Structures are given as structure tokens and as C-alpha cells.
């Protein structure tokens, strides 16, 4: 059986927003600020706007596949064997690799900020165990978990915003656009690629939504929520941390660390870490689920669950071996836009082109 | 069913061994460091840490022993020195509760940049401790002086700096992230508060210091240290330090003494003060206008003025304006002439408000700073006269 229980549009948009907030929330203010300095917030707004602008394309694409799954659709359009190769390439290249990078993000964060002496492997294994557990239950239980955790994430986020507000210094935002548009755009481009090109992965879930006519709207809602959260966190980082933002590895975490209400309410940065663990859990679970499901469909495997352990081992090894140290991740940011574009634009355009030519 | 039961019991047993976290550190394994001092000895760093002795500060019993102990080591890098301390200390240094970081004056003169890297890179340190400079002494000696009201000397230093910033003004609390932001900024050089040991160092280091009503040795904040980038180049005196906090709008409360029209002194207590610094650029010439709105109360009158008349109050306000404008302008001039570095952050203000002009000015900003005209305009408002209205001297005159 291939997991027949469906999720509701509401569950879908919650998962989408948690997925997009995912690993971006902790690192994005810094990656933006390195290029754009105090204009990081403008870069963020541009990235979100572009992300929402290209969304209709993905929604169209998703509706075109549904009710077929991605794998079935490619096989129909490209023929059996080319279709299989195409979907495997796509799955391995984008969601599967993203899954291992996401896992690495979790490990890197935990070992630099919270548990410096714990081996990263231990963190990865435990995190993966929870993810596998979720996937083996199926998509719907994961969706319900997301539904349960969502209010918690939003409330903690609001709490963070309120508690850090007294430390805002508006002068940090000046001068606006000191060096013109160029650095702002240079900062925005990698951020558009990560994570705003990733709806291409999320639309693969369209066939599992029970009221399919609402899928597009749900995807849009999820993206808007995530976009607002990211804009708020970037604006806060610039206003509170100022010139320091670009120097820090995890500026949002440091925001939490700076909370200090009357020497009494302080040292609650771990709340920020908790938000991040939850969003990353949903992100990794979805990436993993989509990969496992699609691979199972390609090989016509009856039950995708037996794939979870072998795939988990590959993800684990990739997460350790592809990135020898955290500087690699920063280098990766530079090439990632082109890489992501290949999968987020190249692959679907190829698919659409063939579909139009062969009138399928 | 049976299989499930076996699995369940296996998991339960496993739970016994996986409880807690990998990195756990129990309270009694930690050497809680509240103060850290860094000095230079030759090419190496000399790090001294003030570690709390929990049994001496817990409860009421107040010990015969000192409340803190000190570990010190020399090393090529800070971390090397800190880790070397385990050769003497039974516990590993734990710096999350650091309150003050004292930098020795000689280290500060050579540059503090290198020493700050570890402190911002290490995840154990938070950024909420204060950084001060040991004036005319070493950081180590400063951290050795025992204090009375707050048993832990570093906590005493932390609280004293916080209080004096709030109610006296010529001191400023700088935390690590502020300091780094100022070091990175092109338009401001950092400033740190200095701390001095007053009295006998030898007695101060022993508990004898605690047995006296007037301790033989005290640590005392005095003046601000002026930096050029990360190198200390000189000190501001009390009045100049006060001018600095006025310009940076850090005044919460302070006392200003003015001379009455007919001689004698009158003290004004600052209740609320707001400084706005505006920059403007005409051609290539930057100018800075400082506006201060100050609300104050009359706190102490040692002259015979008639406080019941509004004219007197207006005159006192004018005197206060002149006094404040006078010393703030003089202090800026002194910094412009003597130190030639922009510690007031005027460059930052030009940068934020006139980004285009700043591009041309920033290359030799300190040069521009020394020639820059600065105007100070103070608007003092006297609000209250305290619990009595007329002055005691005036009333005595009437009786005669």
C-alpha cells in the first residue's frame, strides 16, 4: 500500500509554512547581511515577493500533475523508462540532497551553539530516528503533528518578537540603500533559491490533498505565513544586532540570547532553538517522505516503508561526508542558486515542453 | 503480544542508560567564573579568573575563607591559558555567568582585538558582561581585591558600574557586542570605563580588608579610556567622561553644580535628559549639532537666591545651559585636539544620514573629525524645588 490517507488543505498549508521557515530562519539574516549589510531586510522582502510571484507557475504545474503523482505523470509524458530515469534524477538531486543538507544544518547548529562536545553523528542519528518514526506512520499523522506544533511555533515566535522589542534601535536601519540596489539583489538571489524555489518539491504532495481544488490556495497561504515570519525576523535582526548581524553564524538564536527583561526574564534562547527543531523536523520529514515515496513509486514497490532505513543511512552518510566543515556550507550558498534553478526551472520546463509537444 | 512486551521491556531498560544529555555538566563539576582578567606578559597572554566558592557564598553562614578564588595561567592564546588552569583547578572553567571582563592597561595599549576573538567565538560566553580597563594596574590585581557589600568582587564591580551609570554618569557600561560593533564601525572609536585600585593592594587581597569599616583597598571606577581602533591612547577625566555620556544620550540621572549669580553653589539633579545629535554636510564640510533637553530638579541650595520668583528659575536655567554647553564643547575640543579620534560616533551619524557624502569623507574621517565644527545647544528645564521652596540661607537672612 502506498499510504492512502489524505491530508486536508489546512494541514498542508501548515506543513508548507513550517517547511519554508525550516532551516532558513536561523541562518538567513546572516547570509543576507553579509552582502546587503543593513539593507538585509529589503533583500528579504524582495526574495519573498519573487517567491510569491513565481508561485502561480508551480501551482499550475502541481494542478497539471494531480491527481497523478509526479512519478506517474513523468512516465506518462516521457515514456516508461525515460520517465523513471527523469524522476529518479530529480528526486536524488533535489529533495534527497536537500534532506541531507537540512540534517547537517541541525547538527551544525547543535554542535556550535548548544552541545559543543557531543559528536555530530549522535545528533544526526537521534534526529533521523524521530523522522523515520514519523514517516513510517505516514503523511497524515505527520500532518497532524504539524497541526499540533504550529500554534506553539507561532506563539514562541511572537513571544520572541515582543520580548526583544525593547532592544530595537531604529538608527541601525540607516542608511537605506547606501550602495544602491546591487548588493541587495546579490543578497536576495541565493535566498530566492533557498527556500523560495522549493515549492517545486512541495507540489509533489498535491495528489495527497483531499480537496484538490484548494491545494494551490493552501500552498500560497503557507508561503505567505512563512514569508511574513522571515521578514519579521530579518527586520528584527537588523534593528537589534545592527552591524553584527553578518558576523554571526545564527543571528536569530543570538536575538533570543539577548532577551533580558529586568535581569529576570533572560536566558531563554533555547526557545528559538526549539522553534527551529520543530520546523526542521517537518522540513526533513517532508523531504524524506517525498523522496521515499517517489522512489517506491518508480520501482513499483508495494510498501515504501522498507525503504526508510536504507535511505536514512544514505542521508546520514551524505550529511557527514558532503560537508567536511561549516565553511563548505557558506561556499555552497554561492553555487546553490544555479543548482536549484536546474531542478526548479530546468526540469519542469523540460517536462512541460515534452508534454506540449506530445500533447499529453 | 509477547513480542511487544519483550520489546517494551527492552526499551525501558535502554531508557535507564540514555537519560540525560551527552554534554551534561553538573553544578558541582563547574568552576563558575564571574570575573576574568587578561594581561599581556611578553608575547603571551596572562589570564586570571575569579571563581566563586559556592560554600562560601551560600546561605547566611559567611565564611572565614574568601568567597572567591583565583586561577591564573599564561599561554600563547587565551584558550590555551584557560585550559591550562585545570592543572590547578579541580573543575573546568565555566564562563556563562561571567559578569566583568577586565583588560589590563598595558594590553589595551597594545590592542585588544586579538583577545576579543575567542570571547565572541566561544558559544559558552554570553554577551551581557561588562568590559572595563584596569587603569594604571593589571587586570589580575584588580580582580584580587575583596569587597564587602557584595561578597563576590566581580558582582560588586558589575553592580557598581551599573548603578553609577544610572545615577552618576561619567561611566559607561559596554558589553561585548557593543564593543565589537564599535570596532567594526568606520565612524566611531570605542570607549571603555576604567577601574582603579585605591589603597593598599596587599591588604586588599586578604580577608583583613573585610574586617574594616573603611576597607584599606577598594576598586573604583574612574574616567573613560579612549581607543583608537583597538588600542588605548589615553584617558578622559571625570568631566570629559560626563560629556561623552551626554553626547551618547546615556545619561539617566546625574548631578550638575552651578554657581549662583551672587556666588555660592547650587546643585541640580538631572531627572531626564534627551540628546539628539544631527549631522549635516555642506559641500565637503560636515557639521554636527547637538541638542540636549534636560529636565532637572533643584536638589541643594548653598546660596541665597529667591526661589519663589519665576525670573530666578529662568536665570538658573540659563546658567545651567551655559555650564553644560561649556564643558561639553570644551571636552569635544579636547578630544579633537589631543586624541584626534572620533569617539563620539559623529562619523556614524554622518554615515547614516548622509551616505553619499560619507563615501568621500570616510577615507580620512579622523582628520575631518578634528576640524569639524560642533555646536551644542542645551535646553534646561527646572521642574521641582524639592521638599522646601526657599533656601535655608535666605530664610536665615530674613531672621537677622
Strand order of the largest sheet of chain A: 1-2
Radius of gyration of chain A: 20 Å
Q: Could you spell the SSE succession of chain B in H and E letters?
A: HEEHEHEEHHEHHHEHEEHEEEHHHHEH
Biggest pleated sheet of chain A = 2 strands, antiparallel
Compute the number of helices of chain B: 15
The number of strands of chain A is: 2
Structural domain tally of chain B: 2
Structural class assignment of chain B: alpha/beta
> What is the quaternary state of this protein?
heterodimer
The fraction of residues in strands of chain B falls at: 25-35%
CATH superfamily heading of chain A? Amino acid/polyamine transporter I
Task: Give helix and strand order of chain A, one letter per element, not per position.
Answer: HHHHHHHHHHHHEEHHH
Shape of chain A: globular
Provide a count of the helices of chain A.
15
Computed over alpha carbons, the radius of gyration of chain B is 27 Å
Given as residue ranges, the uncertain stretches of chain A (5+ residues, pLDDT < 50) are none
Residue share in helices of chain A?
A: over 70%
Query: How many beta-strand runs of chain B?
Result: 13
Q: Bin the strand percentage of chain A.
A: under 5%
Instruction: Identify the CATH architecture of chain A.
Output: Up-down Bundle
Named CATH topology of chain A: Amino acid/polyamine transporter I
Structural write-up:
The complex is a heterodimer of chains A (360) and B (400). In chain A, a hairpin with a 3-residue loop joins strand 1 (260-261) and strand 2. Chain A has helices at residues 9-21, 24-36, 40-53, 55-65, 70-78, 80-114, 120-137, 139-164, 182-193, 199-202, 215-241, 251-258, 270-298, 308-321, 326-357, and strands at 260-261, 265-266. Chain A has a two-stranded antiparallel sheet. The model of chain A has no long low-confidence stretch (mean pLDDT 88). Chain A has 360 residues and is mainly alpha-helical. Chain A is built from 15 helices and 2 strands. The radius of gyration of chain A is 20 Å and the shape is globular. In chain A, helix 1 crosses helix 8 (139-164), helix 6 (80-114) packs across helix 14 (308-321) and helix 7 (120-137) packs across helix 13. Chain A has a single domain, classed as Amino acid/polyamine transporter I, CATH 1.20.1740.10. Chain B is of the alpha/beta class and 400 residues long. Chain B has 2 domains: 27-235, no CATH class; 239-400, Nutrient germinant receptor protein C, domain 3 (GMP Synthetase, Chain A, domain 3, 2-Layer Sandwich), CATH 3.30.300.210. Chain B has 15 helices and 13 strands. In chain B, strands 1, 2, 3, 4, 5, 6, 7, 8 and 9 form a 9-stranded mixed β-sheet that branches. In chain B, strands 10-11-12-13 form a 4-stranded mixed β-sheet, with helices on both faces. In chain B, strand 8 and strand 9 (231-235) form a beta hairpin. The chains are: A mainly alpha (360), B alpha/beta (400). The interface between A and B is medium-sized, with 24 and 20 residues. Chain A: It comes from Paenibacillus mendelii. Chain A: Keywords: Germination, Membrane, Transmembrane, Transmembrane helix, Transport. Chain A: The chain crosses the membrane at residues 12-34, 40-61, 81-102, 122-139, 148-168, 188-206, 218-243, 270-292, 304-323, 335-357. Chain A: Pfam families: Spore_permease (PF03845). Chain A: This is Endospore germination permease. Chain B: This is Ger(X)C family spore germination protein.
Amino acid at each position: 500500500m502506498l499510504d492512502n490517507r489524505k491530508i486536508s488543505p489546512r494541514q498542508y498549508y501548515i506543513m508548507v509554512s513550517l517547511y519554508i521557515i525550516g532551516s532558513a530562519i536561523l541562518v538567513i539574516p546572516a547570509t543576507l547581511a553579509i552582502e546587503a549589510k543593513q539593507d538585509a531586510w529589503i533583500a528579504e522582502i524582495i526574495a519573498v515577493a519573487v517567491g510569491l510571484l513565481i508561485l502561480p507557475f508551480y501551482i499550475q504545474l502541481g494542478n497539471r500533475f494531480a491527481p497523478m503523482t509526479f512519478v506517474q505523470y513523468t512516465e506518462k509524458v516521457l515514456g516508461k523508462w525515460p520517465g523513471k530515469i527523469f524522476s529518479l534524477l530529480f528526486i536524488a538531486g533535489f529533495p534527497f540532497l536537500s534532506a541531507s543538507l537540512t540534517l547537517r544544518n541541525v547538527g551544525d547548529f547543535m554542535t556550535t551553539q548548544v552541545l559543543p562536545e557531543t559528536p555530530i553523528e549522535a545528533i544526526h542519528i537521534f534526529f533521523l530516528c524521530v523522522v523515520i518514526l514519523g514517516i513510517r506512520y505516514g503523511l497524515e499523522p505527520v500532518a497532524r503533528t504539524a497541526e499540533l506544533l504550529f500554534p506553539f511555533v507561532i506563539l514562541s515566535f511572537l513571544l520572541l518578537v515582543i520580548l526583544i522589542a525593547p532592544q530595537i534601535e531604529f538608527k541601525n536601519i540607516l542608511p537605506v540603500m547606501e550602495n544602491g540596489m546591487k548588493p541587495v539583489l546579490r543578497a536576495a538571489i541565493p535566498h530566492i533559491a533557498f527556500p523560495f524555489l522549493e515549492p517545486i518539491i512541495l507540489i509533489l504532495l498535491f495528489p495527497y490533498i483531499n480537496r484538490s481544488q484548494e491545494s494551490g490556495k493552501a500552498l500560497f497561504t503557507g508561503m505567505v505565513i512563512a514569508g511574513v515570519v522571515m521578514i519579521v525576523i530579518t527586520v528584527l535582526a537588523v534593528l537589534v544586532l545592527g552591524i553584527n548581524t553578518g558576523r554571526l553564524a545564527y543571528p536569530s538564536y543570538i536575538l533570543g540570547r539577548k532577551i533580558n527583561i529586568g535581569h529576570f526574564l533572560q536566558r531563554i534562547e533555547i526557545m528559538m532553538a526549539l522553534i527551529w527543531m520543530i520546523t526542521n523536523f517537518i522540513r526533513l520529514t517532508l523531504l524524506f517522505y517525498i523522496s521515499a515515496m517517489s522512489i517506491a513509486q518508480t520501482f513499483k514497490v508495494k510498501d515504501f516503508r522498507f525503504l526508510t532505513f536504507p535511505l536514512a543511512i544514505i542521508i546520514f552518510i551524505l550529511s557527514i561526508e558532503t560537508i567536511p566543515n561549516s565553511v563548505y556550507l557558506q561556499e555552497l550558498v554561492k553555487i546553490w542558486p544555479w543548482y536549484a534553478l536546474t531542478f526548479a526551472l530546468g526540469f519542469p520546463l523540460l517536462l512541460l515542453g515534452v508534454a506540449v509537444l506530445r500533447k499529453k | 503480544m509477547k513480542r511487544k512486551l519483550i520489546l517494551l521491556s527492552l526499551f525501558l531498560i535502554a531508557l535507564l542508560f540514555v537519560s540525560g544529555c551527552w554534554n551534561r555538566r553538573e553544578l558541582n563539576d563547574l568552576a563558575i567564573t564571574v570575573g576574568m582578567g587578561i594581561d599581556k606578559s611578553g608575547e603571551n597572554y596572562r589570564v586570571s579568573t575569579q571563581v566563586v566558592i559556592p560554600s562560601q557564598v551560600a546561605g547566611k553562614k559567611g565564611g572565614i575563607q574568601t568567597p572567591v578564588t583565583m586561577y591564573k595561567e599564561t599561554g600563547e592564546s587565551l584558550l590555551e591559558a584557560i585550559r591550562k588552569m585545570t592543572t590547578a583547578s579541580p573543575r573546568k572553567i565555566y564562563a556563562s555567568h561571567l559578569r566583568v571582563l577586565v583588560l589590563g592597561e598595558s594590553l589595551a595599549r597594545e590592542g585588544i582585538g586579538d583577545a576579543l576573538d575567542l570571547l565572541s567565538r566561544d558559544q559558552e560566553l554570553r554577551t551581557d558582561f561588562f568590559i572595563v580597563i584596569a587603569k594604571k594596574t593589571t587586570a589580575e590585581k584588580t580582580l584580587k581585591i575583596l569587597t564587602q557589600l557584595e561578597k563576590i568582587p566581580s558582582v560588586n564591580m558589575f553592580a557598581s558600574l551599573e548603578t553609577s551609570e544610572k545615577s552618576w554618569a561619567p561611566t559607561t557600561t559596554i558589553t561585548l557586542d557593543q564593543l565589537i560593533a564599535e570596532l567594526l564601525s568606520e565612524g566611531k572609536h570605542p570607549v571603555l570605563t576604567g577601574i582603579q585600585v585605591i589603597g593598599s593592594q596587599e591588604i586588599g587581597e586578604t580577608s583583613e580588608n573585610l574586617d574594616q569599616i573603611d576597607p584599606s583597598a577598594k576598586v573604583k571606577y574612574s574616567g573613560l579610556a579612549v581607543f583608537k581602533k583597538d588600542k588605548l591612547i589615553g584617558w578622559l577625566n571625570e568631566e570629559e567622561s560626563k560629556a561623552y555620556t551626554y553626547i551618547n544620550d546615556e545619561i539617566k540621572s546625574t548631578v550638575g553644580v552651578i554657581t549662583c549669580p551672587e556666588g555660592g553653589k547650587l546643585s541640580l539633579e538631572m531627572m531626564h535628559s534627551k540628546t539628539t545629535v544631527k549631522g549635516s554636510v555642506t559641500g565637503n564640510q560636515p557639521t554636527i549639532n547637538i541638542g540636549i533637553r534636560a529636565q532637572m530638579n533643584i536638589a541643594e541650595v548653598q546660596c541665597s537666591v529667591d526661589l519663589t520668583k519665576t525670573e530666578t528659575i529662568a536665570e538658573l536655567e540659563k546658567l545651567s545651559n551655559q555650564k553644560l554647553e561649556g564643558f561639553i564643547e570644551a571636552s569635544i575640543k579636547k578630544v579633537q585636539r589631543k586624541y584626534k579620534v572620533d569617539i563620539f560616533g559623529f562619523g556614524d551619524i554622518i554615515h547614516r544620514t548622509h551616505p553619499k557624502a560619507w563615501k568621500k569623507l570616510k577615507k580620512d574621517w579622523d582628520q575631518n573629525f578634528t576640524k569639524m565644527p560642533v555646536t551644542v545647544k542645551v535646553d534646561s528645564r527646572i521642574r521641582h524645588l524639592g521638599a522646601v521652596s526657599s533656601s535655608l540661607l535666605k530664610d536665615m537672612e530674613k531672621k537677622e
